[in-house]
């Protein structure tokens, strides 16, 4: 095979990847959750990040919205709300953003080596709507590629949020009817 036939798949893989991970669903107990829910309430995420410019609370709400949209796409017949009072048929999802930094795409492109890096970390928590009992968690821990260049310049907190939201939606489907 010719060298150019290897370059495109490798470049595509690198362009779509970032450092860090989104964990698999971690149950709160070793006992499997057998309850099935008929609806989902996605609460606004809080944040534990210092916020000098007002962007972190907006990002926390945006992550909640992304989760809501992802669940609606995965399970279109299950009602998903962003507010209201949960009941025994409600799976509640919430959590907190623990690190948020948009970084600087130009620095990532031109300098690399961590300059201008973007970060998004969050704890996603699943709860029973009636009891408030924890069902489990997902940990989002994403950041831009440290080597810089065009790949790192295209990695944004928005893409990290979408990845975390998709993984959250996938995990929620096992609890929904």
Mean pLDDT, to the nearest integer, reads: 81
- Total strand segments: 8
Report the span from N to C terminus: 49 Å
User: Rg, please?
Assistant: 18 Å
CATH topology: Rossmann fold
Any idea what the shape is? globular
Low-confidence stretches: 10-18
**SSE ordering:** HEEEEHEEHEEHH
The number of domains: 1
Tally of contiguous helical segments: 5
Helix content: 25-40%
CATH architecture descriptor name = 3-Layer(aba) Sandwich
In terms of DSSP E residues, the strand content is: 25-35%
Which structural class do the helices and strands define?
alpha/beta
Q: Under the CATH scheme, which class?
A: Alpha Beta
Multimeric state of these chains? single chain
Main beta-sheet annotation:
8 strands, mixed
Could you characterize what this model shows?
- The chain is of the alpha/beta class and 177 residues long.
- The protein has a single domain (4-175), classed as Rossmann fold (3-Layer(aba) Sandwich).
- Helices cover 34% and strands 26% of the residues.
- It has helices at 4-16, 55-74, 105-110, 149-153, 157-172; strands at residues 19-22, 26-27, 39-42, 46-47, 80-81, 90-101, 119-128, 134-143.
- A hairpin with a 5-residue loop joins strand 7 (119-128) and strand 8.
- Helix 2 (55-74) packs across helix 5 (157-172).
